[in-house]
Amino acid sequence: MYKWIIIGGGIHGCTIATFLLKSGKVKKDELLIIDPYPVPLYKWKTITSKIGMDYLRSPSVHHLDPAPFSLQKYARDNKVTAPFIGRFKRPSLSLFNAHCEALFAETDLYSCWFRAKVENLAPGKKKWMVHTTNGRLEAKRVVLAIGMNTQPSYPAWAEELAKSNPHRIHHIFDDDLQSIREMPPSFGIVGGGISSIHTAVHLCNVHNEKVKLIKRHPFRVHDFDSDPGWLGPKYLTSFRKENDLNIRRKMITQARHRGSMPRNLFMKAKRLYGRGQLEVITDEISGVRAAGSYIDIRLKENQSQKVSSVILTTGAASRHPIHDWLTHMPKCTSCGFPIINKNLEWENGLHVSGPLAELEIGPVSRNIAGARKTAEIITALAN
User: Fold this and answer.
1) CA 49 – CA 198 distance, rounded (Å)
2) Which InterPro entries match (predicted)?
3) What per-residue confidence (pLDDT) applies to 364?
């Protein structure tokens, strides 16, 4: 029986595993990471490569190693060219990924990897039983480190097109889309946040045709997806004093800068627009239809737009990422998210991370900073 089983091998699962292993409290043979993909961070690397991300939004101190300046040290030691940009020292994606791989090699995290899909999770006597496609496993404690990018949000108007012309419309979270270069130009990108702009910049750089970006709201420019005060006592003190979880949910919703991007990325889009490479349309989509070799996108206020391919950067569905295999469902709030304690425990021995932990961690719960906070709490429990 394992001491810890982590379900999910993305940023959150690997951060928690790295913290546990580097603490010395947990040995390699006492820890298991269950994930359906072949290697750690598979989904992260696939999506960030797909949209052409070059630099992260997070600052240099947000990464998978417990030591806060580990990434900066790694860049110096390896003489990395252009490792960071801006006053927050945002790391390049290549540097961030290389640092992750170095951590995995240092901790031998690959020896803890178990490729499988979870089919059932149920409590036993002082243990949890995890049934997978590759057998049954047991652990004293389980961490649900499940992200939101497994459930792409398809607008209602896109659902019929996805059925009738699946090769013409894709969401960046779709597993069957390995590269947006595979889709025929011209392109229509739908969405107005950071992923939309990364995708637009990427396509403008690799294609000669004008790229169209259709968004519902004006550009929202913020350094981070929530105020940095949510990382510490400035806002978290009052947040944790609030016992009404419905009010906490409202605080999280109000704190998040949804559909926003940092200024450096906004300026890239602005330059492409000025050169005529990017067309930006702010409007609501009323419907789409296939018309020969084109997709006709009908808008409420502007003229219809004709494109060959539609790329959705509309984020994840708003529901929590609980799967059918969690047949024993502990208590949830009215918004459907877990009721957890300060140890991020949903039930005795069952912990959560990422979006599932946000009613305790706060609005940063889903990002790398949230992964680090979760890992610190869980590592403190290990013995």
Assistant:
1) 10
2) FAD/NAD-bd_sf
3) 97
* CATH code, 332: 3.50.50.60
Q: Are 88 and 206 found together in one domain?
A: no
Q: What is the pLDDT of residues 348-371, one digit of tens each?
A: 999 999 999 999 999 999 999 999
The tally of domains found in the chain comes to 2
Structural domain that includes position 112: 2-150+318-381
Give every CB contact of residue 345 below 8 A, 6+ residues apart in sequence: 351
Q: Is the pLDDT of residue 328 over 80?
A: no
List the single range of 148-162, 201-215, 233-247 with lowest mean pLDDT.
148-162
